[in-house]
Amino acid sequence: MYYPNNTLKHKLCLRGNHLLYEYAEARRIPHKKTGKYIVATNEKEITKLEKIFNLGCKNKVELKRVSKDEIKENEPELSVAAGIFSPNSGVIDVPSLINSLEVDVTNNKGIISLNTSCKSARINKEIFIISCNSSEKFDFESKVLINASGLESFNTSNNFDFLKKKFIKKIYFAKGHYFKYSGKNPFKKLIYPISNDESLGIHVGMDLEGYLRFGPDIEYIEKIDYTFDSSLKNKFLESIKTYWPDIIPEKLNEDYCGVRPKIQNKDEQFKDFSISTSNFHGIKNFINLQGIDSPGLTSSLAIGEYVCSLIE
Questions:
Q1: Which pLDDT belongs to residue 80?
Q2: DSSP H or E segment with residue 193
Q3: Which are the contacts of 289, defined by CB distance < 8 A and separation ≥ 6?
Q4: Which residues are within 8 A (CB) of 38 and not within 5 positions of it... i.e. 6 or more apart?
Q5: Which of the four pLDDT bands, split at 50, 70 and 90, describes residue 195?
Q6: pTM of the entire structure?
Q7: How far is CA 195 from CA 10, 198, 244, 253, in A?
Q8: Which residue of 106, 171, 261, 268 pairs with 154 in a disulfide if CB–CB is 3.0 to 4.6 A?
Q9: What is the pLDDT of residues 74-87, one digit of tens each?
Q10: What is the Cα–Cα distance from 53 to 55, expressed in whole angstroms?
Q11: What domains can you pick out in the chain, each with its CATH number?
């Protein structure tokens, strides 16, 4: 419901949502379809809420308009003007998901090389020769090369001698903080306030045990840095109080932060996932992924499916 029609973010998020539930059921990965409310905290935000609803319907997302009275009946602690309900939103145990994918790779005769960096790559007779550093230097050959190195995708791309610089997207680092709540969780659903152009806002998330966390915010930084800025607590409280006025400030504490790889800089308009093939850069069987930020996790299995379909 957040992404322009027919973009990769729209199509892969929708497909990925379905695939994740299917995969989690098959692999017995802990997950829960909680549903979520997207809420307008005041009358001025209702116009934006309506735009999200209309876009979601156009994108074939299952959504329902809900009044403030309906929301109050289900989530009595919330103080909002109106909302949208998304029944197919949920939470998943991410470490279990990653572990399961790792098992899939090894069971299919794949090799996972940890603590390894890609230093260079070149082409010899349509074969990629990739040089890596780990506990020792090594090379390997492949008919296909996929660069999905996230925050390092710009640096990694610049290590490929066959790829012209004009085809490499600059990566901007967008830091996000999460605060946890030690008090009782009064919510049954995920709660998302109206988003802006840069992020989905400081929303209410929860783990599978029901413990609350709030975030992320967004701060563009020059280099990767996971230092937690505890001074942001007041900013978070101000945002949260717009929809949950009864939050107890003393029970909000710092949790963790992460960094997102974006290809749009601060104040720039929406940019889609960048998944480029020979149609863009001219290199057969080289697929370059950049700017895989939100909704990257929801889209992850669909991204894998899509990338497989691009191999020539």
A1: 96
A2: strand 190-193
A3: 146, 147, 148, 153, 273, 274, 275, 303, 307
A4: 1, 49, 52, 83, 84, 86, 192, 193, 194
A5: confident
A6: 0.94
A7: 16, 8, 17, 23
A8: 171
A9: 999 999 999 999 99
A10: 6
A11: 36-87+172-262 (3.30.9.10)
The residue type of 81 is: A
Which 3 state secondary structure label does DSSP give 17?
A: helix
Which single residue is written with the structure tokens 């700017």? 291
Rg (CA), the chain: 21
Structure tokens given for 168: 């490499």
pLDDT tens readout for residues 128-174: 999 999 999 999 999 999 999 999 999 999 999 999 999 999 999 99
Average pLDDT over residues 62-70: 97
Closest listed residue to residue 16, CA positions, set 28, 26, 8, 4: 8
At 207, the amino acid letter reads D
Which string of DSSP letters, residue by residue, matches 76-107? TT---SEEEEETT--EE-HHHHHHHHHHHHHH
Residue 290, φ and ψ in degrees, nearest 5: -140, 155
Report the C-alpha gap between 258 and 260 in whole angstroms: 7
